[in-house]
UniProtKB/TrEMBL annotation:
Signal peptide boundaries: none
PANTHER family xrefs: CATION EFFLUX PROTEIN/ ZINC TRANSPORTER (PTHR11562), RE54080P-RELATED (PTHR11562:SF17)
Membrane topology: Multi-pass membrane protein
InterPro entries the record matches: Cation_efflux, Cation_efflux_CTD, Cation_efflux_CTD_sf, Cation_efflux_TM, Cation_efflux_TMD_sf, CDF/SLC30A
Main location as per UniProt: membrane
Organism: Actinomadura miaoliensis
Keywords: Ion transport, Membrane, Transmembrane, Transmembrane helix, Transport
Record-annotated membrane-spanning stretches: 24-44, 50-71, 92-115, 127-146, 158-180, 186-206
Subcellular location: Membrane
Protein name (database record): Cation diffusion facilitator family transporter
KW Ion transport (keyword) present: yes
Length: 305
């Protein structure tokens, strides 16, 4: 009997979300500082595209704030003794919250845009162009900050996608402002608002699928379960592999459990070390709990599920 000792709690401060927390903090300050400006000018100009972008800015503020809180929770040590895997999943819940916020804002804006069709609203194009350009600059700065951590942390990725969507919104505001100024047709403002909403929903659904996969304890996307089983079965001294489970605790933290059946005289210590090395080096699984058992062991038969 044996297990891997990469429990990870001692490395909380170095995990993906915690490592990029400063990026979230700077992006939060930038977005929160600009949100009030965009909301005020959106109301003054009467532009739905500008208001939709302000709505996405508000979603950014909420999402980035939740992400910051989640990274703080995820990196603090457990003092209760009850959270045996720590609080890393807080980041995944924050990503799920980001998905809900993105979808909610997008649905609201699209609904408002559809209601406006046919109305004779007046829209001032100059504030749209000025504020849209400033918003674009702020969003690009935040996007550059978060991009480095988006590939490593699902939490940072949720915030990054929010900012990407808002960057597209700022571009849309500028385009709508140019078209309204050139043609005098307010319809362009409405069309751009709908396009922004649809874009946000598409990105939110993609992120939502990743969140569901983690919370549902699916095998990681980049890990082939059949390949893992085959590699463990090829370890010298292993006759069979069963009860193999693979899942993601949080971004960059893959976990595995498995039972390895060995010949009666096989040195279990060596089998354990070789199996852990295979999981770590070939499949990126740093935390594995492995049960090494003799071929005549029948205890697993008692498990009903």
């Amino acid at each position: 009997m044996g297990h891997g000792h990469g429990h990870g709690h001692a490395h909380a401060a170095g995990h993906a979300g915690g490592k990029h927390r400063w990026r979230l903090a700077v992006a939060f300050a930038l977005i929160a500082g600009f949100f009030g400006v965009e909301l005020a000018y959106g109301l003054l100009s009467g532009s739905l595209a500008l208001l939709s972008d302000a709505g996405h800015m508000a979603a950014d503020v909420v999402t980035l704030g939740a992400a910051l809180v989640a990274t703080r929770i995820a990196t603090r040590p457990d003092t209760t003794g009850q959270r045996t895997y720590g609080s890393y999943r807080a980041e995944v819940f924050a990503s799920g919250f980001a998905v809900l916020v993105m979808v909610g804002v997008a649905v609201y804006i699209v609904a408002e845009a559809l209601i406006r069709i046919g109305d004779h609203a007046e829209v001032s194009s100059t504030p749209m162009l000025v504020v849209g350009a400033l918003g674009l600059a702020v969003n690009i700065a935040a996007m550059v900050l978060l991009r480095a951590g988006a590939s490593e942390s699902l939490n940072v990725k949720g915030a990054y996608l929010e900012v990407v969507a808002d960057t597209a919104g700022s571009v849309g505001v500028i385009v709508a402002g140019v078209l309204v100024a050139a043609t005098g047709q307010v319809l362009f403002d409405t069309v751009v608002a709908i396009a922004i909403g649809v874009f946000v929903v598409v990105r939110a659904v993609a992120l939502g699928r990743q969140v569901v996969a983690v919370l549902g304890q699916h095998a990681p996307e980049d890990v082939n379960v059949g390949r893992v089983a085959a590699d463990l079965g090829a370890v010298d001294g292993v006759q069979d592999v069963h009860d193999l489970h693979l899942w993601t605790l949080t971004s960059g933290m893959h976990v595995a459990t498995a039972h390895l059946v060995t010949a009666d005289q096989t040195a279990t210590h060596g089998v354990l070390d070789r199996a852990l090395q295979v999981l770590r080096e070939r499949h990126g699984v740093a935390h594995a709990t492995l049960q090494v058992e003799p071929a005549d062991h029948t205890g697993c038969d008692a498990v009903s599920w």
